[in-house]
Amino acid sequence: AHSLTASTPLPPFDASAMDGWAVSGPGPWEIIGEILAGQTGPRLGDGTAVRVGTGAALPAGTDAVLRRERGVVVEGPGRSRLYVGDSDSGRTDAHPGHIDPGTDIRSRGVEAAAGDLLLASGAVVTPAVIGMAAAAGYDSLGVVRPPDAAVLILGDELLERGQARD
Predict the structure, then answer these.
(1) Is the pTM of this model over 0.70?
(2) Segment (H or E) for 129
(3) What SS3 state is found at 89?
């Protein structure tokens, strides 16, 4: 029934686009914790990383997200180190501490800026629309019910049943 606009930037924070690790600076990185969606974490310093889930808010200091399947964790005495490589084989890359800055980061406001039109009035409400509205902070949507229709037939030229006549 009404247009939907973004009340805040979407996403409202820099977010992880993949499951993996938020990393800061060149690696290898010391793993210092974990952040799941809905949680916040400490600022990352160079050479540190935290495990993150898809959609999790990235801590300050994050340069990139290393995807889970591209990370190799090596356990050491009292700490774990993260390298770029192949998680299945455990082999590290030729440059096991390099990942391009910005990799797999969904930047704050990349989907919509505050005030952007998300959906014009008159659109059909689908499950995807409900999800988008919820992500934009809408707790409810005003809708217009489809009209009821009835057919009134006058005259005897139409048959209720049976074969057509002359």
Answers:
(1) yes
(2) helix 127-135
(3) coil
